Every structure is written in structure tokens, then in C-alpha cells.
Amino acid sequence: MLNYNFNAIYMFSKTSKIVFILFIFSNVLLYSQIRADQKLDPVFKSLIIPGWGQKTLGKPKRARFYNYIESGILLTLISSSTFSNIEKKNYKAFASRHAGISSSGKDHKYWVDIGNYNSINAYNDEHLRNREIDDLYLDDNKWSWGWDLELNRKIFENKRIRSDQLELFATFSVGALILNHLISSIDALYLKRISSNNSLSINPYKNLILGSIGYSLTLSF
Length: 221
What we know:
Structural class: mainly alpha
């Protein structure tokens, strides 16, 4: 239990450092543009920090909307990544205790395999029957494993799957973060065109071919 808490603190601290650096960088970039606020296009402002361009264009509610989305995605990204790493460290430690393995130098495929087979012999025997020679493991101290209980293997597998799911969710969060920046910049472009370029003009026209006259209404964006 103490080991789990230590891992949680360690991984949260590591992730927090990355987020803190990004936060400082964003604020430095923000305040460096204060004097040149009118020169920096609102579209690029929102691309850098979602909602910034909307605030510049006098739309504070829309700005807060993108700020809230950004905060929610960042929170999801941090929590998913943190707990994925916590679960990963713990399932490796669990396998070391109950399957007699060394956790160093192992790829993801190895952790998947030991969760599906009770021992290295069971794994190699099945792959030999299927003639999958390239997938065999050497039966030595580095690669061999043997679960003490079937129940512990299943507990390990659940931990490993949960870690992978959280990692995948964190990956989706990164995509959502990028998408929020893009959508915010597109929305800023839309607001910019409405606020600066909209004009209604009424122009008379005469069509000699059709013998008609009238007025044309033009709304420019």
C-alpha cells in the first residue's frame, strides 16, 4: 500500500512538472503579446490559447466556453496519464512477486503474453504447435515466468488492461486538445469577419436584356 502511494506521488509530480512548464510557457507568451495585442491576429491568439481571440473580439462568454473545455481536457489528460503510469508500475511489481520475473527490458508484447499464459512453457508449447517459431521466448532467467496462482494471473491481466485503456484515453485527450485549439481559431476567424467586414449595401440595377430594374442587397463577410 505504501508502495502504491509513493508511485502515485512520483508519477503525479512528474506529470505536473510537464503541465507546469506548459502553463508557464503559455503565460509568458500571453503577457509578451500585451503591448502588441492589436497586431496579433485573434485567429492566432485562439490557436495558441483557446478563447483568447474571442475575448479580444469582445465575446467573453465564448472565451470562457473554450477555456472550460481546455481545462477539462487538460485535467482528463493529466489524470489518465498519471493513473495509467501508476497502474503500469504496479502490475509490473505484481508480476515480479507472483510470476518470478524481472521487469527490466520488457516490451509491451511481453506483458500481454504473460497475462494470457500461466507459464513460459505453456506459451512456447502453443506457439510451437502453431509453427510460430519467431514468437518463442528463451527459457532463461530474463524471459521465463510461472504464475503461482491462476487468480493472480487474472488480477495482473485486469491491471494491465486498465493501464492500457487509460493510456489510450490519454492519447485521445491529446487529440481533443489539438482539436479544441483548431476549433477555437476557426470560431475566432468567423467572429472576426462578422465584426470587421460585415456591411450592408443597397445598389440599384437595370437588366436591359430582361427589361427589369430593382435593387440588390449585399451583405459582405
